Amino acid sequence: MQRAVQYEETGSPSVLRLTDVAVPEPADGRVVVTVRAVGLNPFDGKVRAGLIPTKAAFPRGIGGDFSGVVSAVGTNAEYVDGTPVAIGDEVLGWAASTLREQLTVASTHLVRKPANVSFAVAGSLSTPGQTAAAALRTVPIGESDTVLVSSASGSVGFLTAQLALTAGARVIGTASLSNHERLRAAGIVPVTYGAGLAERLRAAAPEGISAVLDSAGRETIDAALALGVAPERINTIVDYAAVDEFGIRTPGQYERRADVLDDLVRRVSAGTLELPVQQEFALDDVVAAFTLMESRHLTGKVVVTP
Ligand SMILES: NC(=O)c1ccc[n+]([C@@H]2O[C@H](COP(=O)([O-])OP(=O)(O)OC[C@H]3O[C@@H](n4cnc5c(N)ncnc54)[C@H](OP(=O)(O)O)[C@@H]3O)[C@@H](O)[C@H]2O)c1
After folding, report:
1. How confident is the model over 78-125, as pLDDT tens digits?
2. pTM of the prediction?
3. Domain check: are 114 and 132 in the same one?
4. Nearest residue (CA) to ligand 1, atom 20
5. Which helix H or strand E contains 204, and what residues bound it?
6. Which residue of 14, 45, 110, 279 is 20 to 30 Å from 285, comparing CA positions?
7. Rounded CA gap, 132 and 237, in Å?
8. To 5 degrees, how large is the angle CA 306–CA 134–CA 110?
9. Whether residues 7 and 121 fall in one domain
10. Given ligand 1 and candidates 275, 296, 303, which is best to mutate, with the most ligand atoms within 8 Å of its CB?
11. How many domains does the chain have?
């Protein structure tokens, strides 16, 4: 048996329980991974709270990102580049219900973890990283752009801002004052969100804003439209009503891709992309971990290490 985090009813983090479940067997094209780290995402909390509907039966598992070590391999288990997965490989990826000691996953949802990337960072990268990459595919960014990234201190926003900087853009990022120095150090021009946002953005970008990559919602979109940003140059991952209302863009249910995750983790390994970790928690402390993650003002990922 192994321990897994499950819940029997929607609600606050206190509905989460540690339960003994069977250790999975590797099927064709799949592997078993001994989980070393799981980065928590707002999505996990919203599904658990019942804010995002799912038809999944109770008891439900939770968690979507992970890193770990391959402990068993099914037949035909290959990475997307066609090389075989081997027992002992250090990997990261995405799967359903990752908050457990051992999980089973399709080999095509895995990439190799570079030795100099920690399990905590690797186990946090898939959701925010792939979402950031999808934003830049939806609204391509180049050297001539001045880009507004909302919640640039958050996991998605910070990765998005860094990818936009790497693409050569000037990047303005919204955040609480306490996070401004951190953004400045990364090359992002910080601006406080809240009332008066459009005026502060006009002052920070007198040349005009040419693209917006949003993970905060309506306030950012309203400010961008007020400043004359073209709707097709505004991407949101949170305000789907604004997509229909204003004709702005969203990647929607974008496809997760191992080649994209591989590119992201190589950037982390090379030191050109950073995903900070705020705190690591043992599996026994999963309720405290979710409570912190849902406080909405983090300085990095909240990670559970089974
Ligand atoms: N559609 C998708 O595929 C997808 C994928 C991933 C995430 N998301 C969504 O994207 C959002 C961000 O996710 P995340 O993982 O980056 O979360 P996160 O790491 O918890 O970051 C949240 C950020 O929101 C900022 N914030 C808090 N209150 C705000 C406000 N009133 N206005 C503007 N910003 C505010 C915080 O900045 P300060 O601390 O500086 O105040 C914090 O940096 C979540 O709603 C998540 O569900 C969607």
Report:
1. 999 999 999 999 999 999 999 999 999 999 999 999 999 999 999 999
2. 0.98
3. no
4. 296
5. helix 197-204
6. 110
7. 9
8. 40
9. yes
10. 296
11. 2
